[in-house]
């Protein structure tokens, strides 16, 4: 599909892209760049690309497609660094979990004649780094684009076709809507997981023994999310601040409602809520998302209930 693709950042997402690009034969040349020499050396050992450099500008030079897969707080610095090397007509995209902030950081650096199309594949795991990636990561997952008002439809279609060939389904929305939606379906669940595992860890007398020994699968599911990359999630929280605070406020109100129902022994309220939420899971399954499949969105994840 492309003569040369540059992957800037070669962690979970960048290396999954490298693997699927190779499997599907989507590029003549895959240039890999990352900030740390050690990560780059590992990418080379894994044979993820055709060339390797710690100089993002070098990787981006002459590329037809440049994919930035770094923590969202670094996307502006990366855009500034590669901007002078971007060729006319190239597509520049990203995979960041927040969109308004990434656009605000990257867009000012994008030279005229370069197609900047922000994107976000809704696929990942709690793991990070080049060893964590796998070619099937994007299979049957959404990839959301938040095109800018002047986005060239042909470039958007070309990038959409690339992601389809990586296994993804495509959707588009405006950046604010993306950030609000992801705040509830992705960012809040991680924040809640970090919080509950932190609370358990604070119970020092319990944590070293009982929490580990008796962790039931409910708590274990939280620990998976709470093991996610600290840099990535620090940046997500700082860069989707307004939407996350809005969702946290609603969450706290609803939690207070639940707390009150428990305090006053209001079984009907509890039963009604739990019935409604059970229906949500059922509708996700009916919509074709097989939650119980062992590879639901992630590989190499323990499924203790099944083993
Ligand atoms: N992990 C997920 O579940 C997931 C899912 C979808 C999107 N995302 C988004 O994808 C992006 C990458 O996440 P990941 O999970 O692949 O992270 P990761 O930690 O596995 O990899 C990040 C990579 O970026 C490199 N990097 C960091 N700062 C850099 C800089 N300034 N210049 C060049 N390289 C730099 C690191 O060396 C590493 O190679 C993030 O923006 C994240 O929000 C993550
Ligand atoms: O399944 C997981 O481990 C993930 O965290 C993946 C997940 C998500 O919340 O669904 C995390 C962040 C992304 O931006 C997209 C996907």
Automatic annotation (TrEMBL):
Keyword Cell wall biogenesis/degradation: no
Pathway noted in the entry: Amino-acid biosynthesis; L-tyrosine biosynthesis; (4-hydroxyphenyl)pyruvate from prephenate (NAD(+) route): step 1/1
Any one GO molecular function term: prephenate dehydrogenase (NAD+) activity
Superkingdom of source: Bacteria
EC number assigned by the record: 1.3.1.12
Stored InterPro entries: 6-PGluconate_DH-like_C_sf, NAD(P)-bd_dom_sf, PDH_C, PDH_N, Preph/Arog_dehydrog, Prephen_DH
GO biological process: tyrosine biosynthetic process
Annotated catalysed reactions: prephenate + NAD(+) = 3-(4-hydroxyphenyl)pyruvate + CO2 + NADH
Domain Prephenate/arogenate dehydrogenase: 3-292
Gene3D superfamilies: 6-phosphogluconate dehydrogenase C-terminal like domain (1.10.3660.10), NAD(P)-binding Rossmann-like Domain (3.40.50.720)
Keywords linked to the UniProt accession: Amino-acid biosynthesis, Aromatic amino acid biosynthesis, NAD, Oxidoreductase, Tyrosine biosynthesis
Enzyme class: oxidoreductase
Pfam families the record matches: PDH_C (PF20463), PDH_N (PF02153)
Database matches in NCBIfam families: PRK07502.1
Family of the protein in this entry: Belongs to the prephenate/arogenate dehydrogenase family.
Name used for this protein in its record: prephenate dehydrogenase
Species of provenance: Mesorhizobium erdmanii
């Amino acid at each position: 599909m492309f003569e040369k693709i540059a992957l800037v950042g070669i962690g979970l997402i960048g290396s999954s892209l490298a693997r699927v690009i190779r499997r599907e034969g989507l590029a003549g040349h895959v240039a890999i760049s990352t900030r740390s020499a050690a990560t780059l050396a590992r990418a080379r050992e894994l044979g993820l690309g055709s060339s390797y450099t710690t100089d993002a500008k070098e990787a981006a030079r002459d590329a037809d497609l440049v994919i930035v897969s770094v923590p969202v707080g670094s996307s502006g610095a990366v855009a500034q660094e590669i901007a002078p090397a971007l060729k006319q007509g190239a597509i520049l995209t990203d995979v960041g979990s927040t969109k308004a902030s990434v656009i605000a950081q990257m867009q000012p650096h994008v030279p005229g004649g370069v197609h900047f199309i922000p994107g976000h594949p809704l696929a990942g795991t709690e793991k990070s780094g080049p060893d964590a990636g796998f070619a099937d990561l994007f299979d049957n997952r959404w990839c959301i684009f938040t095109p800018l008002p002047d986005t060239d439809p042909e470039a958007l279609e070309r990038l959409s076709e690339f992601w389809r060939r990586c296994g993804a389904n495509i959707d588009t929305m405006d950046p604010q809507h993306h950030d609000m939606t992801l705040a509830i379906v992705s960012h809040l669940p991680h924040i809640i997981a970090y919080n509950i595992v932190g609370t358990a860890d604070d119970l020092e007398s319990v944590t070293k023994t009982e929490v580990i020994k008796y962790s039931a699968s409910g708590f274990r599911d939280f620990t998976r999310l709470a093991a996610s990359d600290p840099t990535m999630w620090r940046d997500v929280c700082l860069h989707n601040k307004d939407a996350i605070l809005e969702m946290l406020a609603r969450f706290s109100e609803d939690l207070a409602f639940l707390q009150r129902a428990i305090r006053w022994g209001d079984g009907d309220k509890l039963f009604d809520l739990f019935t409604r939420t059970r229906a949500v899971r059922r509708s996700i399954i009916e919509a074709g998302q097989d939650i119980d499949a062992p590879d639901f969105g992630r590989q190499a994840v323990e499924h203790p209930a099944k083993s």
